[in-house]
Amino acid sequence: MLIPRAGRDFSSNDYLGLARAQEMRNIVSAALERGVAIGAGGSRLLRGNDPEHEMLEAKAADFFGCGAALYFANGFAANSTIFAALPDRHDLIVHDSLIHASVHDGMRLSFAEKVAAKHNDAEAFEDAISSWRERGGKGRPWIAVESLYSMDGDFAPLEDLITVADRHEAFLVIDEAHAVGVFGPEGRGCAAAAGTAENIIRLATCGKALGCEGALVLGPRVIAETLVNYGRGFIFSTAPSPLMAAAVRGALDLLKQPERRDRLQKLVSFAGERLHVHTGSQILPIIVGDDGKAMHIAAALQKSGFDVRGIRPPTVPRGSARLRISITLNADENDIAALANALEGLGL
């Protein structure tokens, strides 16, 4: 059921509060004034390739320190296209057991062998690749993880996974959807230091902390060129809005200013103390367990003026239904304290 947004924001991914920020309004207004188109009018390979797309991709490649960037309409399209187009029938995809649904949809379109690895267990990825090789696997392994998981708020062991990828000449695909803008130098993400590696592909979504829309695939130039020529989700889709490309380019400039990230980290620390949940990230899950109870508590909080959503299977594993508390700059310490009191009143 679709629920209208209402109440104090504890459910969105607008972590830095940029979606409605005056700075972003000014960026969009300036783009409109200089004649930037609202719609692309076609796919990038036809007439839809706008200078704003190319300027964003050049800026993103420089900002994230990679060979090339390719702009997609959203993270779901980018993820599904990566895994549908890049691994071939002789390859192996080893994915974290809690990987995004978009990766699963892409893998369904791939002829590569697929296997799930235990969540955040680098040794499990190692074992899966080794077992595949022992069974005669001759292609290339692909490792699929998120740097920051959206339902548990926990971080992938990236250093260990990079070691596994290097040892097995594997591609490591890191979805930084919930990390870009919040973590890393100037908000470049948890894997910022690995940006120039030839065997690493990163996904930076633009509709979360950046407050805009779209997603950037970051990696070696050959990856971008392959997706342009073989990625059906790119080839046959109308190009993203040029106006949004201009907005994202402006948002990347705003990320260089630390003030919003510093404020968010202070709020995260405050929320962790008041809600008694510590993940190290802006995502704070309160595990309820029972599906019905979780949804009942979420509904009660919504009636009290808090936009908190209940999350239940199949989005999360059975028996782990939860309230997903998202800390953003759209709420302040007073809002967090009020939420803590409301949760206590509901027995949590």
Structure, explained:
The chain is built from twelve helices and twelve strands. The longest helix is centred in the last third of the chain and has 17 residues, at 259-275. The radius of gyration is 20 Å and the shape is globular. The strands form three sheets. It has a seven-stranded mixed beta sheet, with helices on both faces. A three-stranded antiparallel beta sheet has the order 9-12-11, covered by helices on one side. The protein has a two-stranded parallel sheet with strand order 1-10. 40% of the residues lie in helices and 16% in strands. With 348 residues, the protein is α/β, with parallel strands linked by helices. The protein has helices spanning 22-33, 51-64, 75-85, 101-108, 122-134, 158-167, 221-230, 232-235, 242-255, 259-275, 291-303, 333-345, and strands at residues 8-9, 68-72, 92-96, 113-117, 141-146, 171-175, 200-205, 215-219, 283-289, 306-307, 309-311, 321-326. The model has no long low-confidence stretch (mean pLDDT 96). It folds into two domains: 8-20 and 258-345, Aspartate Aminotransferase, domain 1 (Alpha-Beta Complex); 36-255, Type I PLP-dependent aspartate aminotransferase-like (Major domain) (Aspartate Aminotransferase, domain 2), CATH 3.40.640.
